[in-house]
Amino acid sequence: MRLPDILRFARDAATGYPMRTSLSVLAMSIGVAAVVILTALGDGARRYVVGQFSSLGTNLVIVLPGRSGTGGFNPANAITSTPRDLTIDDAAALLRAPGVRRVAPLAVGTSEISVAGRLREVMVAGTTASYFPIRNFELGQGSALPEEDWGRGSSVAVIGNKIREELFGSAPAIGQLVRVGDRRLRVVGVLKPVGQGLGMNTDELVIVPVSLAQALFNSNTLFRILIESKSREAIPESRDQVMEILKQGHRGEEDVTVITQDAVLATFDKLLGALTLAVAGIAAISLAVAGILVMNVMLVAVTQRTGEIGLLKALGATSNTIRLAFLAEAAMLSSLGALLGYLLGEAGAFALRQAFPVFPAYPPDWAVIAGLGTALGTGLLFGVMPARRAAQMDPVQALMKH
Amino acid sequence: MALIELKGIARTFQLGDTTVNALADLNLQIDAGEYVAVMGPSGSGKSTLLNLLGLLDRPNAGSYLLEGRDVTTLSPDEQAKVRSTRIGFVFQSFHLVPRLSAAENIALPMTLAGIPAAERGRRVAQALKDFGLENRADHRPDQLSGGQRQRVAIARATIMQPALILADEPTGNLDRHTGEEVVRLLEALNGRGVTLVVVTHDQTLGARAHRQLMMEDGRLQHDSALSG
Ligand SMILES: Nc1ncnc2c1ncn2[C@@H]1O[C@H](COP(=O)(O)OP(=O)(O)OP(=O)(O)O)[C@@H](O)[C@H]1O
Ligand SMILES: [Mg+2]
């Protein structure tokens, strides 16, 4: 039998039983669509969280006061009492470390901000000019904190966009004086609006020079020291250098915790990788179910058509011809189903992205390939297996089923 | 040389504990161009014999020479080739493929044999004309009358120009008049040299054949060629 004839015969056979054909195509496409959508969800969640963490800054090494047992990321560190405080001098000393590019001390507290009678509570971050590049903060108006001696603390402030809206409305904010606590500060910059992220919401933040913040809160301790390493590769080295320098400054005591963003990211990445895998597992099950459906439909099809197979044999068809005809039909059904399912899945992922724009719900390539591969594989296998058996039947036996 | 030569053919079926001897120690010769009617009571083995002759079934014992070649030892695919080129079947219940048109059903043996489409088209057009089906070419079997269906089946059986046509009760599902018509078509083929073996219950139809075989209990009880 010639190839075009086999294909035409298979196509006619498929369209000759529309119910059966649409059932198997439907089963197949639902399976593939489930894989695509579910993995897009899982992987989207993973990418979303990784993205949020990356936006905290790149190549970040963070020093926390106090010693943590594991050295890993432990949110409890943020609130434990500190045996020895971190100081501005500690932060300045870290600039000596060869692997370090930038250092920003960070003191945090709450205060009140007011202008022309309007007053509200705000989070105040005391830091230096290098904090902005380390955290990838972008300015909507004006400039960042001035480069100056860390001990000087000029009376300036950079405010978040929401604060600007509330205090100034549509009036210009740059150059205006605001009152923060008992200080009068000049607004030099406004941060670009970013909305809610994983870190603190910078839209409602006021950033002032670190020594000014310490005076404001009447303390000389730091909440964190943020360090940007020269490169990703230099992170472990910087971490060790930072630890060493701080140990020297604290009379040989390791009373600080140094965490790298990498470790945090890796933990979350692992967690979310597991999530994606779990989602892929669910998807694989739906695909298996689709496969079994296709198998049943095909089995019924071959049983239904045993008589036809017998007739074809009586008319001189070899078993090879019969196998090929069924293979072609199974291939058509499963590729159509797989293609349809893929389109359906991509449409679903697209709809998800439309509904949740911050959520990068793209199916990963491996999932698409695995989904299509499994669908085609099961479709072909289960399409051909019963046909093989039928092809081996005695013609007279098959004919009697007509 | 005989077209068909059966020696000591036996065909048994196992039904649970009992063995059914559908054919037993059958010896038979049919020459090329003969017109043979196979008759006998129901269950006497007529269809079994025809299936063996058509290589749709294998005997449990004995040898079958078709055109001098032992065909019982051939592989399934070699047998398929013999069926494709040398044998045409006509069944009582037509056995047309319901989703294919009359023309496509007639072309099916050629399609399976890999004959090019142009050649197929030419031969099908001729066959449609020969069997008076010109304006039924695109009809599917369920849009045809019984007589038309059987004519399509006969056209299909002859399209590969076989040496042997096997018909198992070809008129069984037709009324007297259409049956007559179908028999005349088959006889016309025989007139052009095709060997024709017809299984029938109909005495008058059987009498029209040049040779009658009477079967009983899987044995050849009477052969008109031997008794003269
Ligand atoms: N596949 C089978 N399995 C078991 N027994 C069978 C099978 N095919 C035929 N037989 C038996 O073999 C015997 C001969 O059957 P066959 O079909 O050849 O009869 P027949 O002469 O064609 O009868 P009818 O005139 O009713 O068509 C019968 O007893 C039948 O029951
Ligand atoms: Mg019979």
TrEMBL record, chain A:
Entry membrane topology: Multi-pass membrane protein
Record domain MacB-like periplasmic core: where: 21-242
Pfam families: FtsX (PF02687), MacB_PCD (PF12704)
Ranges of residues in domain ABC3 transporter permease C-terminal: 282-395
Keyword terms of this UniProt record: Cell membrane, Membrane, Transmembrane, Transmembrane helix
Main location: membrane
Name of the molecule in the record: ABC transporter permease
Keyword Transmembrane listed: yes
Family in the record: Belongs to the ABC-4 integral membrane protein family.
MF (Gene Ontology): transmembrane transporter activity
Transmembrane domains' residue ranges: 21-42, 271-303, 324-345, 365-384
Compartments where located: Cell membrane
One GO CC term on file: plasma membrane
Species: Candidatus Dechloromonas phosphorivorans
Keyword Membrane carried by entry: yes
TrEMBL record, chain B:
One Pfam family per UniProt: ABC_tran
GO molecular function: ATP binding; ATP hydrolysis activity; transmembrane transporter activity
Name of the protein described by the UniProt record: ABC transporter ATP-binding protein
Domain annotation ABC transporter: ranges: 4-228
Any one GO cellular component localisation term in the record: membrane protein complex
Coiled coil: none
Presence of keyword Translocase: no
GO biological process per UniProt: response to antibiotic
Domain of life assignment: Bacteria
Keyword tags: Antibiotic resistance, ATP-binding, Cell membrane, Membrane, Nucleotide-binding, Transmembrane, Transmembrane helix, Transport
Alphabetized SMART domains for the sequence: AAA
Protein family according to the UniProt entry: Belongs to the ABC transporter superfamily. Macrolide exporter (TC 3.A.1.122) family.
